[in-house]
Amino acid sequence: LALQCLITFFESPLFGSAKVNSIVLFVDSQVALSWILSGNAPRKNVFVNNRLKEISEYLCKLRNIVAPVSFSYVPSSQNVADLVTKPCSAERFETDFELWMYGPSWLKLPSTEWPKGQLGCIPLSVRDSLVSAAVEPCITNSCPLDVKKFSSFSKLISFTSYVFKFINKCRKREDDPMDSAVGYLVKQMQESEFARELAYLKDPSSEEAPPLVTKLCLFIDEKGILRSRGRIGNNVELKYHVVNPVLMAKGHHVTKLVINYAHCKSMHMGLEATLNFLRMHGY
User: Fold this and answer.
1) Rounded to an integer, what distance in angstroms lies between the CA atom of residue 114 and that of residue 221?
2) Which of 38, 77, 143, 259 has the fewest CB atoms found within 10 Å of its own CB?
3) Which of the residue ranges 5-9, 29-33, 67-71, 263-267 has the most confident prediction, judged by mean pLDDT?
């Protein structure tokens, strides 16, 4: 809520044309700070992780319209916000009135002299990003191809395969451009939609296994594509891609194009025919 209000303030005409070089956000909860810096809370519910996604979006917007955003830890005893968010007597508020109006005295000092605390709850992997480094949790799509501009899977694959034909010619390779195009589009989709699952499978010791990994027996094949190890793995008659189908993201534009392609190829014969086509083609 505070971040949303901050964005509204900067977008307001009342803000004027004042120059802001950087924004520092102070947090007195080391656990919450570690969640924000890492971008996820592995052992928390969907609600907490959805709030983290919203914070990430707000930070991206702040960075784009104002200035870089960084974080710093502040001890609870010096957290100004506690004066109005926690029970506070009139006598204490009168005593700390200067603190409320102007903030802690150390704000006038260089950032190297700001209080840091023990930081025992913040992982070493994200601790260095406090104060000194701007936090940029904005997730950008690294795919230079806008798949939403294509209305059919055939057109998308045809266009992408031409790119890989050119790459193969430049690098003197003999890879199948159609297979390369499909693999590229699938990997780009998975990297944007299943980043947490991919990170865990690449480094299982990093955190607790995401539910989707254990539920679908996910694994990464030799081409870097996320697949589900099926229950018919011992069947010698079915091909590898049928036994271990590719994981597709629900609601993604590429997934919609693939489903529509399967529906047309199965002659519009209904749900079962479309599902069977998808399964036999490894989706």
Assistant:
1) 48
2) 77
3) 263-267
